């Protein structure tokens, strides 16, 4: 899944024009206004930096396919890609670009597939029959993402899928929220006037929504939250902003807990969504500016 969205941040330097008052006759010629200062429009775009690799055995058998779609930020000055910044505004834009891209470079390096590749090759050497067409498809690792821009915030929601020959594949959800104004990655609670109050309030909202989801699931009829979730589920809920996948989209805030984080694999990921209106009273003034809610 590849998604591209254009991200616009205009920096304008308005010219200051002096006014003229009445003077005694003879009237002088009207002064010529000074030339307007050059304006430079800085814009940003998130594109995809693909990382693809096919792992094969010496006999040509395909063992594993790796397909990572990595978010990649670029900056433009008046529509032209900035490669060698020549103004302070361009230098600042490139600092923001580097901070964003280095984060995802580090993610790719920390999720290096070298160990998995070695594992797969050993598995093929010991049990080549497992890689027959009748037994299982090539093993795989994939990262896909969606990108949403609100205010000065870039919100990335990603899922990492892997199938390494076990009983079932696995999907882990990630989220990153990057503020173009400050050039920093933020946790969502940092946008609130009182982060602790906001964090606990959303945890309460998640708990209520989780109970509603359980009550509306026929397979879980008669069960309570404590029956379905792990014993420490409340502790997990209260870390929704810092340790789990929380991102924004056009409608509001989405929080996803991957399988195993709140409940068993059989119960799957647990996803919760809250419209902006439900969270309106919690944002700080600066948070509202980042989210474009002013």
UniProtKB/TrEMBL annotation:
Keyword terms: Signal
Domain annotation DUF3298: ranges: 206-276
Signal peptide as annotated in the record: 1-22
InterPro entries (UniProt xref): DUF3298, PdaC/RsiV-like_sf
Identification of the protein by name: DUF3298 domain-containing protein
Record organism: Dysosmobacter segnis
């Amino acid at each position: 899944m590849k998604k591209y969205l254009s991200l616009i941040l205009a920096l304008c330097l308005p010219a200051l024009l002096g006014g003229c008052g009445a003077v005694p006759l003879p009237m002088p010629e009207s002064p010529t206004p000074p030339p307007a200062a050059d304006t430079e429009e800085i814009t940003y775009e998130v594109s995809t930096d693909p990382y693809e690799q096919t792992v094969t055995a010496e006999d040509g058998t395909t063992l594993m396919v790796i397909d990572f779609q990595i978010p990649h930020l670029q900056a433009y000055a008046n529509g032209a890609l900035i490669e060698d910044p020549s103004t302070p505004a361009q230098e600042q834009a490139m600092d923001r670009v580097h901070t964003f891209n280095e984060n995802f470079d580090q993610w790719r390096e920390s999720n290096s597939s070298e160990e998995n590749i070695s594992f797969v090759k050993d598995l093929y050497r010991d049990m080549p029959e497992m890689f027959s067409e009748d037994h299982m498809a090539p093993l795989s690792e994939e990262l896909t993402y969606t990108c949403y821009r609100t205010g000065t915030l870039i919100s990335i929601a990603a899922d990492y899928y892997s199938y390494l020959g076990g009983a079932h594949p696995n999907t882990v959800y990630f989220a990153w929220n990057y503020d173009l104004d400050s050039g920093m990655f933020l946790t969502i609670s940092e946008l609130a006037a009182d982060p602790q109050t906001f964090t606990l309030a959303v945890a309460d909202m998640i708990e209520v929504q989780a109970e509603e989801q359980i009550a509306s699931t026929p397979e879980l009829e008669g069960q309570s939250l404590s029956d379905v979730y792990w014993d420490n589920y409340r502790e997990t809920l209260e870390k929704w902003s810092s340790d789990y996948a929380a991102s924004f989209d056009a409608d509001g805030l989405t929080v996803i807990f991957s399988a195993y984080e709140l409940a068993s694999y059989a119960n799957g990921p647990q996803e919760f969504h809250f419209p902006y209106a439900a969270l309106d009273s919690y944002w700080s003034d600066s948070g509202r500016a980042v989210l474009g809610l002013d």
